[in-house]
Amino acid sequence: MVPATLFLLAHQDDEFGVFFEIEKTLANGGRVICVYLTDGAARVPTSQRNEESVAILKELGVPNEDVHFLGAALEVPDGHLVEHLERAYRAIEAQLPDLGKIDRVVVHAWEGGHQDHDAAHLVGVALARSLECLEASRQFASYRAALGLSRLFVVGWPLAANGLIESTRIPFTTRLRYLRYCFYYKTQRMTFMGLLPLMIVDYVLSGAQKLQPLDKSRVSERPHRGKLLYETRSNFSFDLFRLRAMEFVGARIRPLTPGKAHYAGTAQRVPGSQ
After folding, report:
1. Mean pLDDT throughout 106-112?
2. What is the 8-class DSSP label of residue 132?
């Protein structure tokens, strides 16, 4: 079986951040496996959200059998993935023999945009570490606070603190097609009313798929200085996130060594962050 790239996504529609990477992986002869880690049912039925993502992934070339709605099966509520990290990790681990060889993981960036995105990042880093493909694995930016303006946000702009940005230009007609796909998410019209203008800005200014490496040491740091977007919009604090993730991070990502804290969660500015 062809080695696969495992795309770990928090919610149905999060594939919008890696449309090009999915198509590029398939075009290069690779296999794409998409796993969704929550039920995505904050406001609408899970089944509708599943159907929307399946339809778009089919357009991109991903067969139905390689799309897995793990979060729905585990009944992981939208917004609460950080409370189910170990369950999600073990469920994916149990499926690995059926999924075949995985040679890299692509997952949400550590950026403080949505608490589920950051929680998915933790699962992705842990899996890549376990599968011994951390070096080949990548993270992608979705959305986060515009630094210094916590109530505003940007889409598709990586944090410098997450490492070297690998940028691949997306052809203009392909960008237009991806923007059209956003209208497929009928249950998420309100969300994309906010996202789409900023996607257009990103497509005009950079027009590229941007990926960064995974770094297991980054998860011990606050994603960026100032208020995180999810702290502003949902009142879910990073301190609470850190508390609920601590055991998983210590066990799966940064095993405790004598005399050292395994999840410092420091609030100071990370050198090199934007």
Report:
1. 98
2. T
